[in-house]
Amino acid sequence: MWTEAQQAAIDIKKGSILVSAAAGSGKTAVLVERIIKKITDSKNPIDVDSLLVMTFTRAAAASMKEKIYNALLKEMEKHDNDSEEFKRLKEQSILLSSAKIMTTDSFCLSILKENIDKIDIDPAFSVADESEISLLRADTMEELLESEYDAGSEDFIELSDAFANTKGDRSISEFIEKLYRFAISKPWPEEWLDSLNEKGDEWQEYIFNEISRSIDSILSDIKEIIEICNEDEGPIQYLDNILEEQSSIGNIKNAGDIFELSERLNNVSFGRLKSVKGGNEELKEKAKGLRDAYKKAISKLSEEYCFDKKRLLEEEEKEKPKIRAIVDLTKKYIALFNEKKRDKNIVDFSDIEHMALGILLDENKNPTEIANRYRKEFSEIYIDEYQDSNYLQEAIVTAIEKNNIFMVGDVKQSIYGFRQASPQLFMDKYKSFTHFEKADFDDELQKKVILSKNFRSRSNVLNCANVIFKKIMKENTGGIEYDDDAALYLGADFKEGKEYISEIMLTQTSDIEDDTNAIELEARAIAKRIKELKTELKVGEGRDLKYSDIVILVRSNIGESIAKVLNDENIPAYAESNKGYFKTFEVRKILAILAAIDNPYSDVDLTAFLNSNLVGITDLELANIVSAYRKSKNIEKSAKIRMMDAILYEGSESNIELETREKIKTALDFLNKYRKKSAYMNIAALLQDIYNETDFLNLIAAMPGGQVRRANLMLLINKAKTFSNSGYSGLYNFIRYIAKLKDFDNDFGEAGILSENDDIVRIMTIHKSKGLEFPVCFLACAHKKFNKTDLRQGMVIDTDFGLGVQYVDSEKNIKDSSIKQNVIKHKLNVDLMGEELRVLYVALTRAMEKMIISGSCNDAQKELEKMKDSPSFLDIRSCNSYLDMILLGRDNVHFDIKTYDYNMLLKEEVETQKEVRDLHKVFEELSENEYDNLKNRLEYIYPYAENIDLKTKFSVSEIKRMSQSEEFEVKENKKPSINAGNASERGNAYHKLMQKIHYENIYNFSSREDFVKEEISLLNNHVYRELINPLDIVKFLDSKLGADFIKYNGSLKRENQFIMGISAKEAGMGESDETILIQGIIDAYIEKDDNIILVDYKTDNVRDAESLIKRYKTQLLLYKKSLEMSTGKTVNDIFIYSFALCKEIRIE
Question: Given this model, what pLDDT does residue 704 score?
Fold first, then answer.
């Protein structure tokens, strides 16, 4: 049943053990079996409550207990009920409930509770919620920086001046937070922080070795060129140059220090290659290509690592006060934060671990009597997922161990560097422990066991991983050498077939400019492949593939975009996310209502409340209220007014419609009622009362995706309870609490309602997938570049080398990367590459039956040429995405390549849309009447018009009509306008929807059609709702213009009124230079940093684009002039979007 290695892990009796367990190697089963064997040992049985088993998550701890319990029951079945063995096993099953099988945090908490008298804390302390901690951290940082500015120390002011930017203090506060996170992962944070002021030149040896590796890689390429030159018909004429360069470059490694190395790098020169007549052109080009590559590499090394001793000493002198300042700030931040937590009698998880260490070690870092007691108590200590431990957790375990630790993990799956996990702890033991085959099971020697047989996946999946990682996962990039010990070996019995071969899907997106559209195009390729797999692939014991057998893995939260496309393609899909909750329609609505209750004079929140379905005041009614209030109070148009003042006044006046006044009364009654209730009700109760009073839950539940929306609203009640339990109260504080959660990026995903029985494609991040398995796995968007934001900051931090600070000379106004900062950035980049390699390993080992890698590129053929039999050190280091790594490491045997492009994926859809559009035209009532009525909302008013021939004020529509040709006018008037009223109403309906549509909510829906239907349902005018064809709006959203509206929603302006003074001549109304006023409404425009895209919607029933251009060009050129005058920016593009033609039309 067990492999030799598994049996060894179970049987070894003495000494600490490291089990390096590859993906799918059955590590949990081995761990459980070892524990059962320890309990049932006939010679030296142990009690289950004498074990300490520490897991990474609470769910893992619960699962471990359950598995041990089931294993005990299975053992009990082997014995009679009245036997001693049965009674002992029964006793162990009872003891299991109190056994210390828990997370590290839970174990440390138990240490605190068992030794509460040994620490300076109120016994009634509570563990704070992460949201509460975030809020408290924000308050602490704000208070700290404010006090520092008041104190105005020289070091702080210099630091502030050097690193202040457009984000204000944000860059400093963010770095303090980062330094704080590093510090608290160490056993003694303050000691570690102090050491940053004393870091020496350890980095110099590191970068010397790194550059030497690069030189070795270059020399390897040079050796290949020499072999090419010596081939038959090779470019032998190149050889003299190449040999000279080989000598010069090889000499770099003989430098005595980094300064000499830098000098030798700069002294490398490249002569002109001799011309070659005849010979093999392919060999000639290959040699040239390799030489160009290493010339570029030498140039880059020389540029990045110019080590000047004088400059280095100057930089070190300048960085000392900045390092001192940021370290002192971080220490003050920790002290102030701890003080605030003490005041509230709360602790966080870091506090728990540090206080536990403080109980276990004395001031000299020696084990205390309490630590010795735990040493005696635990017969064995088990640590699951050891590769994710940090130095603080290591110190805690070391304090209580007696060479009796059983550590299980896989350094290739260490993917929590952002939580300060240290895979180096694992690697140090991996290198120093003795392989079990060379050790005695009964001696005290520390041993390692390597579990390499995979019982999860087919050989095709394992080959996919092995081929790639044997080429690209090296100890100097990834933390471990992917050798025979690290490789995966088939452990399960599968019926093989060519249909299970791993695939690489490349979607060519050269025709796509927008990244969002590129993701959608790739998602269409994935949808196409899923449909094919549903018909051709069998899984398990030969059953048909289900949607729930498929998972799509992504690196970041882009799953919703993919899910939307899949749903559009009638493939049920759900994207798990840990972001986006606060952006959902229903949560934004209810938070706006709460904000309006708290402060009715917040115009944005009050308007959102008035505009909501709870009150139902339309945009037009709001405009009328404001307009009436201005007239009543003689307020100038340029003066700002408060919406609350307007509704309080106009609600009791007869200047507006009775229906509107009744709505105002409803709104004011609601606000007054809940302002009173908010004074004595807690927030959770207040929310529940609002839900009940307004039937808000049922209203939301009736919308598309209603179940999730309802669950989101209930989740908000839970958040309110957490808020109250944290000692906070009051509506104002709750609104601030939510705002701080958003500021600190403490968002979370929508409420989950998916069950494991739902037949649906799941989309999740790679991190979420760790420990899971699925029959078919897609790795999507593998082309996405690695996130290197941290490398671009003014200060960088590394555990080994300390702080790297930007060189700043305020007098000369110079800011530049320092030498040490560049070295630390290099190391961080190497560490990042290692982390990403390990994340990729996790992704490629989730599949049981079939692995499919999907990515986008401009030219598939060019990408496929990246494959190399033996990638060099520099090749691997130059990878910027998973796709780069995979294409570099693949081979031609174990992968099936599939390519897709725009035409292949969208041709069928475009043809379908054309058929629908043609059909729509047949049923549409034909009318050539132009659509002007929308623009007539603003009437021309001029009291002395009768005294002059030329009006002073015109609407744009009037000017447009006057500018159109006589021939056009006559032709237009010949055709009776039977349905002019309906056409006008239809135009109004479409314009109203386009004014109101919530583009930011589009990704909350399973399909665009559902989104559009919801938006239409939100219109208050039932006639409008009936006049709009949802398909027209869906087609707009699918257009390039629609994609821009979604992408640039934040800078999209709609229904923009304007008045502009220009000469009648400029307006095309004769030759008069007299100034006239032009007024109008611009449907929409996107305002970018330096230019504007202007858009006008048309519902005119026309046969071609030229008709619309002829009708509206004058009008739109006036809009262009108005925008350029008011914004000072250039209008680069003008578009008409025709709903009749379903297309965007550019006006030149």
Answer: 65
Q: Residues with Cβ < 8 Å from 700, sequence gap 6 or more?
A: 586, 706, 709, 710, 713
Contact 573, 527 (CB under 8 A): no
Which of 451, 471, 506 lies at the terminal end of a domain, its last residue? 451
On whether residue 750 sits in a domain, the answer given is: no
* CA angle (221, 223, 226) in 5-degree steps: 115
Is residue 1104 within 8 A of residue 981, CB to CB? The reply is: no
794's tokens: 């003014």
How confident is the model over 459-478, as a mean pLDDT? 92
- Two structure tokens written together for 637: 């148009």
Same domain, 818 and 791: yes
- Which run of H or of E encompasses 585? helix 585-598
Q: Is residue 456 part of a domain?
A: no
Q: Which two tokens stand for residue 202?
A: 């350890």
| Domain assignment of residue 54, given as a range | 4-125+348-451
Identify the bridge partners of residue 777 per DSSP, sorted by sequence position: 551, 851
Whole-prediction pTM: 0.74
Find all residues with CB under 8 Å of 719, minimum gap 6, and list them.
131, 738
CB 98 within 8 A of CB 50: no
The DSSP line for 657-711 is -HHHHHHHHHHHHHHHHHHHHHTTS-HHHHHHHHHHHHTHHHHHHTSTTHHHHHH
Furthest-apart CA atoms within the chain: distance in Å: 118
* CATH number, domain with residue 1073: 3.90.320.10
Cβ atoms of 608 and 594 within 8 Å: the answer is no
Q: pLDDT band at residue 740, thresholds of 50, 70 and 90?
A: confident
CA Rg, the chain, in Å?
35
pLDDT at 763 over 80: yes
**612-622, pLDDT tens digit by residue?**
878 888 888 88
> Both 20 and 116 in a single domain?
yes
From CA 560, how far away is CA 564, in angstroms rounded? 6
DSSP letters for 234-285? --GGGHHHHHHHHHHHHGGGG-SSHHHHHHHHHH---PPPPP--SS-HHHHH
- At 331, phi and psi to the nearest 5? -65, -40
Copy the structure tokens of residue 751.
């409420």
The answer to whether the beta carbons of residues 1139 and 1097 sit under 8 Å apart is: yes
String of b and e for 782-821 (b: at least 16 CB within 10 Å)?
A: bbbebeeeeeebbbbbbeebbbbbbbbeeeeeeeebbbbb
Straight-line distance from the first to the last Cα atom of the chain, in angstroms, rounded to the nearest whole number: 76
For position 623, what pLDDT does the model report? 87
101 with 87, same domain: the answer is yes
CB contact at 8 A, 623 and 592: no
pLDDT at 515: 62
The answer to whether 352 touches 126, Cβ cutoff 8 Å, is no
Any bridge partners for residue 53, and if so which?
A: 101, 382
Write phi, then psi, for 1070 (nearest 5 degrees): 90, -160
The first and second tokens of residue 508, run together, are 């060519």
Mean pLDDT calculated for residue range 343-372? 96
Alpha helices in 1018-1070 (DSSP H): 1022-1027, 1030-1038, 1040-1047
User: Pairing relation of β-strands 550-554 and 543-544?
Assistant: unpaired
Q: Which residues of 1088-1112 are buried (b: 16+ CB within 10 A; e: fewer)?
A: eeeebbbbbbbbbbbeeeebbeebb
Q: What is the DSSP string of 590-604?
A: HHHHHHHHH-TT-HH
Please tell me the distance from the alpha carbon of residue 1081 to that of residue 1058, in angstroms, as a whole number: 6
Mean pLDDT of 809-823: 85
For 885, other C-beta atoms within 10 Å of its C-beta total 25
User: What is the dihedral sign for C-alpha 990, 1051, 1059, 1071?
Assistant: negative
What the block records as the tokens of 1093 is 């895209």
Which pLDDT score is estimated for 975? Answer: 31
Lookup result for tokens 């529940």? 688
